[in-house]
Predict the structure.
Amino acid sequence: GKSGYDHYMHKEIHEQPEALRRTTQGRVNALAGSVDFEEFEPGRFADVTQLHLVGMGTSYHAAMYAASLFATRGVPAYAFMAGEYSLSQPPVTESTLVVAVSQSGETADTLDAVRRARSAGARTLAVTNVVASSITRECDDSLLIRAGPEIGVAATKTFSSQVTALLLLCERITADITGTASAESRELLESVARLPGDVQAVLDTSTAADVAEAYAGSEAYFFIGRGVAHPVALEGALKFKEISYEHAEGFAASELKHGPLALVTERTPVFAVFTGRDDEMTLNNVKEVQARGAPVVAVTSHTDGDVVDVADAVLAIPPTHPDLAGVPANVQLQLVAYHAANRLGRPIDKPRNLAKCVTVE
Ligand code: M6R
């Protein structure tokens, strides 16, 4: 049941600290700076030379997030929408690891991408929430995100668990390839251990309901971010549009000037996601949209200084490692979407035209 919540989505948003504890349980050794998966023996990924991460919707956003993490560690990794990957498949070798990111493990486009990658000779790894799903059966290996069952059509806790599981996978693959655990790993894994508590803090203190109220009736809602905050912006917009039916779009902050800025007016609030890395650049984009009259909601761990001074409203996240900050930031955006849809009386757990699992291409 919904255990006192009006919607499964709201319940599942609140289950995230617990889901993240399960995702990381027994996998993180912060002291050693290492990640251990009972699924894979040490060195299992030592000969991987590049990764293709494929998924659809929210899972594609998690794949983008992970590709950005790999890239900053010097490991070539690219995210693809699974439906497009199948149509124009980039070259793979036996040292290409194709990672299928899918909550259900049943998405037709993602399953098809895996089949094609396999027959072209790539190694395949499923990152899913469902044991013995079709995609796990098709892949050489699988890694469970252990988020627990998700009933709401809108993916919430599974995104947080996907990103966190992929971050652990990234640490592990990088260590397998380079043969060492870095000092930075230790710091990051300490932040991973604090993540469930950080998300709980967001749930306990969020002012997302007030923000949703303040900007109700806007013409459109835009979301911007750079680095890992880019997929978080896309995910924020996806959640907002799918459950509220309001027009919402996510952009890379760097993309604004190249077209989307023409849409920005005083009637289009802009949610800007800050991770603690390259924040000054995103602050410049914030000033650009404000100069066009748009109100700006900053999702940030800053409690004073420029970001907070400039923003019209702030959705606060606890200070954490920039690689992880997208997770609590996304929780704030889930809550904004939820409250915006709820005040419009939308059928939040079953949005029109959508299904939890898309098994046709
Ligand atoms: O089960 P999957 O993760 O493969 O599903 C992929 C998408 O259909 C899914 O993430 C969808 O975008 C979300 N339910 C949207 O909230």
Remarks:
- The first helix runs from residue 8 to 14.
- The radius of gyration is 19 Å.
- The chain has a mean pLDDT of 96.
- Residues 56-59, 102-104, 107, 110, 153-155, 242, 357-358 surround 5-amino-5-deoxy-1-O-phosphono-D-mannitol (CB under 6 Å).
